[in-house]
Amino acid sequence: VHFVESGGGLVQTGGSLRLSCLASGFTFTDYVISWYREIPTGEREMVARVGKTNSSTRYSDSAKERFTISRDNTKNTAYLQMNSLKPEDTAIYYCNILGRDESWGQGTQVTVSS
Fold first, then answer.
1. With 90 as the cut, is the pLDDT of residue 40 above it?
2. Is the pLDDT score of 55 beyond 90?
């Protein structure tokens, strides 16, 4: 199981970013995929998750109405579109199979300046 996250960067408050998560080593369509973020204190929280066929999504309270998760099963890739970014969104963002706590990728850093 392997994940490669990309698309992070430095943006100003109110800006947007689109993160990508390329998965390999397993049957992508068999699993719910989640995006997580790790804040500077080391705490990790789930931001959003997407069902196996894009038909079901769920978001944390902080991500609702600003972030959109999706997946392209033909490319083994999940996405996280982030709009109206706030400084508190600053974190390292990771993707993984829902409920799995291993085989984490390197993550992608998102920094939102005020």
1. no
2. no
The gap between the terminal CA atoms of the chain, to the nearest Å, is: 36
Contact 92, 34 (CB under 8 A): no
Query: What are the structure tokens assigned to 62, written together?
Result: 């902080």
List, in order, residues 6 or more apart from 46 with CB less than 8 Å away.
Answer: 34, 35, 36, 60
pLDDT band (50, 70, 90) for residue 9: very high
Enter the tokens of residue 92. Answer: 């390292």
58 burial class (0-12, 13-18, 19+ CB within 10 angstroms)? middle
Quote the CA–CA distance of 51 and 59 in Å, as a whole number: 12
Q: What dihedral angle (degrees, nearest 10) is formed by the CA atoms of 22, 28, 33, 36?
A: -30
What one-character DSSP code corresponds to residue 64? Answer: T
Tell me the sheet residues that pair with 113: 12
